DNA sequence: AATGAATGAGCGTTCATTCAT
DNA sequence: GATGAATGAACGCTCATTCAT
């Protein structure tokens, strides 16, 4: 047929027909864009596929249902966030120093995903099998608890802290600060706020200076 | 704006018509029950009116649209929550004592509305521009900030705290504790956890004992 | 509003809006018309409602699914057929005479429902819970069996017939004749065919003339 | 007309490609299996190819459309049935004996194809104008009519039978008996039923014993 | 010959909403 | 005030089919 001939074309514009292999990616990106601006029930599959530039049937090649798309989308973003946070834990610094890094990483995350975070915080929670965001923070809280214990032994942190409890309290504080810093709630004073938060935590958990 | 929100007037005695219980109330209760178990987009008006035992048309006598029902429902619950939290601020106690009360009130709120909180945290937040959870907490954070300032002047709290910042940090911590206490994350040790959290905050903000 | 005014109009042409109460009937009639000409899978709900002159949503007010429409349609027609056949059994004639009446009734049925019978005989069988057409004939076959027994006792029919078996054989024959007569397979000779069939059955089942 | 029906040519050895079993055969077998359990409109091409273990595109190498698969499948089965029935006619026995054979052959057919017969009786019949069950039986009825004529000349059958009519009546009876015998409607008494049916027919058509 | 990603029309169905009663 | 039949747009989804590889 016309086959050998077409194949010799260096794979240029095919306006209809076969894959770029990127259909899934295009759909995810389009969905993210749309979900940043509208509720899940306001965004239709026709809208998503139109924005993605694929056919409606293609959607269902990659996602079982519309709902499963958000699970995938949330997973993707959360994986990225995880990675960024987990990186803070990899180096071997005292908790008192770690908190600063976690704030910065958290703020970066909030900034990078500012568009979609409201969505992630809201709708996505209702999609997975259960309480998702709690679950997601859990490993980090646990890691933090073990580092607290380590620093307690090293005499850096108060002995009367229960590591698991302290880890929760710190984590909540860090989240708040990261969000505030990224979200402009303290505009112009991010550094002062951050430093005050760190001092706040230090007083709450640091071992008293030996006399 | 001023349109969708105010179908709230309780109506007067109608002696004819079917339901004895007020139709509006029945609809709200049914919606709450259903929204505790399903997403907004999964709950239909037919479903709600069936659960409420009223006719489909009756729904539109009390709510302009399905979305406005959500707003009304969220308002109702949030008003109840507000009231409970605001009550803590009414008496004239030092911040260091206030935090304990806020934890207890917050935990009570979480327990009382456990069914519907995931819904409030998620979907409802996306309905009106102005009804993000940030906004809702704002008055309390501001009130707390002013109390911090008062206690600073009284020498009870550290002078180097920026009241607005400290208020945010405290608020985040209290939220976390209230949720943990109510949600069973620290089951069996609620009191120990609560007390440790209060001590944590005290160290962070209390003025150092004068020598 | 404009209500009292509109209501004074003597209920003339409402081109949109409220019921004639006949929506269900219109849908059934339209479906019958369409199913006489096309397979079930070729007839779409949009097509049916367009032919019926009702909105798509109205369809689902009266029928749970498209498939349940045919069950209803088949039931309706079969009830009419039942009635006609059952009427033959009501009077108290010998089986030998009854068969003639049954042929005539059967032929009338085939003619009256000529359009939809192929559909009923084919597709509809697969919709109900199980083998439908067998079930439907069963009561008549049983009634026939009991009449055979009666006539055996009266010496009108052969003693060596097993009533249940004979009833089946007669019934199959009658069906065939009714269909042939109505369907034009023996065009022009319907009466001769019918008479020969009756003679055929008489020889098969009548008691031998006493010598 | 001549188009949709003939994708039947068995193709020659293809040594490359995945399936060892011929793809066409696998598709037909899968379709038959599925159509025994579901209506035509419920069985999808994706489902068929999945059950057959071939790719979606492969389907269209062997069948022009989904509908043409049905026709091919029905043809295949009907050819097998034809052959079995036709075999009864091949030997040179009197009609009175033939009916017994036809019952047995018919019952065997019903048993062998029990799974797919409801499908054949229903949907398949509506696919081609020309493939109604009436048409399919016609050659056999005609053959039977000619044998009746032969036996009338031989003095074995009544002279007053119209061969074409008698053939129809006999055929309907045989069908009924075959179905009943195979379907368990007379369970345990198949032989008695069959014998009574034959006696029934003999009385109806045999020439009276000469005195 | 065989594949399977891609297509896009069109399905059955449900929805929020209206309004004559 | 309350009803519920009727609406029709729009939904999520599946389908039969194509064709570059």
Could you explain how this protein is built, in words?
- Four copies of one chain form a homotetramer.
- With 211 residues, chain A is mainly alpha-helical.
- In chain A, helix 6 packs across helix 9.
- The longest helix of chain A is centred in the middle third of the chain and has 25 residues.
- The N terminus of chain A is likely disordered.
- Chains C and D meet through helix 7, helix 9 and helix 10 of C and helix 6, helix 8 and helix 9 of D.
- The structure holds a DNA duplex (21 and 21 nucleotides).
- Pair with the most extensive interface? A-B, 41 and 40 residues
Q: Largest sheet of chain A, described in full?
A: none
Structural class of chain A: mainly alpha
Strand runs of chain A, count = 0
Q: What is the gyration radius of chain A calculated from CA atoms?
A: 23 Å
Approximately how much helix is present in the residues of chain A? 55-70%
- Shape summary of chain A: elongated
Beta strand % of chain A: under 5%
| Mean pLDDT rating of chain A | 86
* Low confidence ranges of chain A: 1-19
Oligomer type: homotetramer
Number of helices of chain A: 10
End-to-end separation of chain A in angstroms reads 91 Å
